[in-house]
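From the pipeline queue, job 12 of 40. The input is one protein chain; the requested action is below.

Action: predict structure.
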Amino acid sequence: MSKSVKINAKTSEIAPYVSDFTKWQTWSPWEKLDPSIKFSVAKPSSGVGAHQFWQGRWGAGEITITSISESIINFNILFNDEHIASGIIRFSPQQTHTYVSCEIKGEITTPLTGGYLAILNQHILTNTVELGLNNLKTTVQLRVTDKGNKNDSQSSSGKN
């Protein structure tokens, strides 16, 4: 499963929202989809080794950032202590924007119902990742615009 979005910002303006779990609440769609979900962020909260846990209506899980480069953030996810997934978030900078893509690959290990569970999870996960990327786009672009407006207002004298 892979989804992508075009964000009108530099990679350096986007990456901190992905590599720091304390910033995920500004764009992650999970709390709206499952109001019962509770997140806890371990230390470190950002960078390689950053770790986040959750518990909600659909179960529990944890995510760990395993490596970071200028253009890629790799992570592992463990769902309900048995379903393992790995993911990659890629940043592809262009002149005026950055393409951000998220790819998640995993394995459903539940016997018998695994196939049905995989289809359901794939549908939910695909839609949620797409929603999350769109939320990330909105969050970052608003912050970049606000930052630009503050700089403009601070640099002007205010006199006509």
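Job complete. The chain has three helices and seven strands.
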